[in-house]
Design goal:
It comes from Rattus norvegicus (Rat). The chain has 483 residues and is α/β, with parallel strands linked by helices. The chain has helices at 3-8, 17-33, 38-58, 107-117, 123-133, 135-140, 152-158, 165-172, 177-213, 226-242, 244-247, 277-285, 287-307, 325-342, 381-419, 433-443, and strands at 69-76, 95-102, 217-220, 254-258, 262-263, 269-272, 312-313, 355-359, 366-367, 373-376, 424-427, 455-459, 463-464, 470-473. It is globular and about 65 Å long.
Length: 483
């Protein structure tokens, strides 16, 4: 399956040769218990994509804070079991939905947590940990602290098989963009053609609902397939036919289909895809209360801005945890009270034109390469103001670079779309502008006929989605694979 590589890929950089083989066996085990059916496979594929990004971030040098990640997996249920925490009863299709949230910054703890949540064996992973922690014992008993590495002449003379030979061969035969497109391009074209009628239906439903409810937009938080999106729009359309009045409260809003219902920190109406119609109806009926909370939130942001010299408090969806409006207001309120207690004198307009985002972690304040300040809600106000004044000039320079980079990114996206006659070129939220610029520059140097008329997504790994979208890693390799 296409997502096996996504599950294994991020681990390859931190595991040794034999541990890599263990990881591969683990992925194969997942392949035996996870379902191939369309809806369940789509949910699993989306969850594994997000898991891939989470594991990759765990391995970034100096990476401090991770965005809590909610995942759902459908697991084939071979025998009847009682549901436990985080698990649901077996569905009529024979699969059990398992939901959990990743928040650990330790790779091994994360892997064990996932396996335990899915009721999968953990002994082989724990044995890896035992081997790591047993090395001092080996030293005490005079045993070597690493396996003996025999010269290749030993294997040539004895006829024994070199256990590292296969691993070295795999590392030499690295996937390249041209080889992967050659192997997967035709299959993607077929999937794309099959999805075209549903894509037209999706556009029709989206336009009709947007006009009926006078919406600003309709979006999806996750990469659900076209069939799944159509189903969600049909469900919303039926609700509008049955009880239109509450839905009219959403006039001018953006509706986002996501994992839970409510209002997002950005003011978008979130419709939980696992909720039933009466949950959605109650949400639409309560929108006036949310609008009132929005006004209070804006006033709170203005008060914080005034106390901190005119800096703008912003919420950047791609860089912050997915918060509801209530959660974000609580975070703002905590920070505002912290500032009030300090009685630090305001600095009129000294930080005007700059931006800051609030976080709930306990790390020190920092300046992001994009130009905004990352500020923990419990920061010491006095040292915080001193830090921001000291870094203000650098922040302005970073913001100017960000704006220039964004212009370059948009120009390269348009140029790539034209050159390869792409139907659509987009990126996953975890891909930065710098990564997208690097990817597009290198794409423009290539001749890639398989991309004609395709939907291309720049991601962290190779994958053909069920509707024919091609996913490629931003740092793809060029050239032919070595034989």
């Amino acid at each position: 399956m296409s997502w096996l590589g996504a599950a294994c890929g991020p681990c390859a950089g931190v595991l040794g040769g034999r541990q890599l083989m263990d990881a591969w066996k683990l992925a194969c085990f997942f392949g035996n218990v996870l379902p191939p059916e369309a809806l369940e496979e789509e949910v699993n594929e989306n969850s594994l994509k997000r898991l891939s990004v989470y594991l990759e971030n765990l391995q970034k040098p100096g990476f401090k804070s991770l965005k809590p990640t909610q995942l759902t997996f459908y697991i084939r249920e071979k025998t009847a079991q009682n549901s436990s925490e985080g698990q649901e009863p077996v569905s009529t299709t024979g699969f059990r939905a398992v939901r959990f949230t990743l928040h650990s910054s330790d790779l091994l703890s994360t892997v064990l947590y996932i396996l335990n949540s899915c009721s999968l064996p953990v002994e082989h992973v724990q044995s890896l940990n035992t081997n790591v922690h047993s090395q001092p014992l080996k030293e005490a008993t005079g045993m070597p602290d690493r396996p003996i590495k025999w010269h290749r002449s030993y294997y040539s003379f004895t006829g024994f098989k070199d256990p590292d030979e296969d691993l070295e061969h795999v590392s030499r035969v690295e996937t390249t963009l041209t080889s992967w497109l050659g192997s997967n391009g035709k299959g993607a074209v077929k999937k794309l053609k099959n999805s075209l009628p549903l894509r037209k239906e999706l556009d029709r439903l989206k336009n009709e609902l947007s006009e009926l409810l006078q919406l600003s937009d309709i979006r999806w938080q996750r990469g659900w397939g076209v069939a799944h999106r159509c189903s969600q729009l049909h469900s919303l359309s039926r609700l509008a036919q049955q009880n239109l009045e509450p839905l009219q409260n959403a006039k001018g809003c953006t509706i986002v289909f996501t994992d839970r219902s409510g209002m997002s920190a950005l003011g978008h109406v979130m419709l939980g895809t696992m909720d039933v119609h009466h949950h959605w109806t109650r949400l639409f009926e309560s929108l006036p209360n949310y609008f009132d909370l929005q006004r209070r939130m804006s006033a709170l942001e203005d008060q914080i801005s005034h106390l901190l010299g005119g800096i703008q408090v912003v919420y950047i969806e791609e860089l912050q945890p997915a918060l509801t409006l209530d959660e974000y207001y609580s975070l703002l309120d905590t920070f505002y009270n912290q500032l009030q207690r300090s009685r630090a004198p305001p600095r009129p307009q000294s930080l005007s034109g700059l931006q800051m985002i609030l976080s709930s972690d306990r790390y020190a304040p920092s300046l992001h390469e994009l130009g905004h300040f990352n500020i923990p809600a419990l920061s010491d106000p006095a040292s915080l103001q001193s830090f921001m004044r000291t870094k203000a000039q650098q922040a302005r320079e970073n913001m100017r670079r960000r704006e220039k980079l964004k212009v370059i990114e948009n120009e390269l996206i348009q140029a790539s779309t034209r050159k390869f006659s792409l139907e659509k070129l987009y990126k996953e939220p975890s891909i930065s502008s710098r990564q997208m610029v690097d990817c597009c520059k290198r794409l423009l140097e290539q001749s890639l006929p398989y991309l004609h008329g395709m939907h291309l997504c720049v991601s962290h790994f190779y994958s053909v989605m069920q509707d024919g979208d091609l996913c490629i890693p931003w740092n793809w390799k060029k050239g032919e694979a070595m034989k």
